[in-house]
Amino acid sequence: MDFIQTLFTGFSEIHGDRQFADDPAMTAGMARFHGQPVMVIANLKGRTVKERVARKFGSPDPEGYRKALRAMKIAEKFHRPVFTFIDCAGANPGLGAEERGQAEAIARNLLEMSRLRVPTIATITGEGGSGGALALAVADCVLMLENAIYSVISPEGCASIMWKDASRKQEAAVALRYTAYDVKRLGCVDEVIPEPEGGTQNDPVSAAKLIDERLVEHLRDLQRLSVEDLLSARYQKFRKMAQFYTTA
User: Fold this and answer.
1) What is the mean pLDDT of each successive set of 10 residues along the chain, which is 248 residues long?
2) What gap in Å lies between CA 39 and CA 71, rounded to an integer?
């Protein structure tokens, strides 16, 4: 919420997915960005222990992703750019979430985000974990704070699967290449944004100013494109990711 309150004005929150419930781990709403109407979507972790428990430590349920998608479709209807902010270790893997279609909700977001007919900008502010993060990150432009991480799995989980030994997490972390500049070199994000000394948590206002500069520039560039060019560029962007070639 620090970023939403600093970067945007007139934030009006949207609640509920119109199917099951309102997910406290996900927020969405209309706002203004430098006077322009936009849609803002973010998952929330909370600060205090009480807040973190209430927000399920930032791990959304299916209704959270469906609320986010509902907000995106509203933005598309009214031709408003979409900004997403991601700090998610992963989607909630609990039994209830699985029963209500967690995988389907994430997959639906991936599909629908890929063909939204409005500019989309995603910013990874902390953790970007697996499909839970990707469900908000199929965007025209993906930004990442320099101390953030973005990966298909946590180092502990990777080590447990690969070597049946979670203590090898450091080795797994190196192999995953999940730090900001590693991810940038892999082509999975478009730009790494520097953070204030000591990290964003020490000075969120200064961090928001740095983010604001990049959001303004990227939004201006995206709005110069026609809808058809926007969709084509987004398609090509994600088709080119993770392509590796070897020679004999």
Assistant:
1) 91 92 92 96 88 86 94 96 92 90 93 95 90 92 92 85 88 86 88 88 88 94 95 91 64
2) 7
